[in-house]
Amino acid sequence: MFKQFMMSAAALSFAVMTGCASVPMESPEKDQALKTFAAPAQDQAGLYIFRDSMLGAALKKTVKIDGEVIGETAANTYFYRLITPGPHTLATESEFSDNLLELNAVAGKNHYVRQSIKMGLFVGGAKLTEVSESEGQKAVANTELAR
């Protein structure tokens, strides 16, 4: 009986992790404009937060900048925000508490942060990692702009 329960739980977890979640999306025109990766004004910094994996496609994960929710990600989506130069705390919803990333935004520069999904004990967790400009631009080019 226990073995059947565990197999059913594993099958359900797999189904949840491989289904597809959807989030509100921006227009294709705005998406394409942001994929030119223009440098922000010298008194601002650009921030791309992207999720370029299909792992956990059924999960939506909240993203925050300095405690303010900017939205939820789904598989192969990204956000773009202009932020002030200086230190910022990015957070993403994870299994038991938010995972944090400290980012020091540089004026006139775009920053690229990957949100990755990882298997958890009960639900999938998420992690944020800053990546290089070339890696970030390549990943964002294959995702779509979420609202």
Automatic annotation (TrEMBL):
It comes from the Bacteria. Pfam families: DUF2846. Keywords: Signal. The keyword Phosphoprotein does not apply. Residues 1-21 form the signal peptide. Residues 42-126 form the DUF2846 domain. This is DUF2846 domain-containing protein. It comes from Stutzerimonas marianensis.
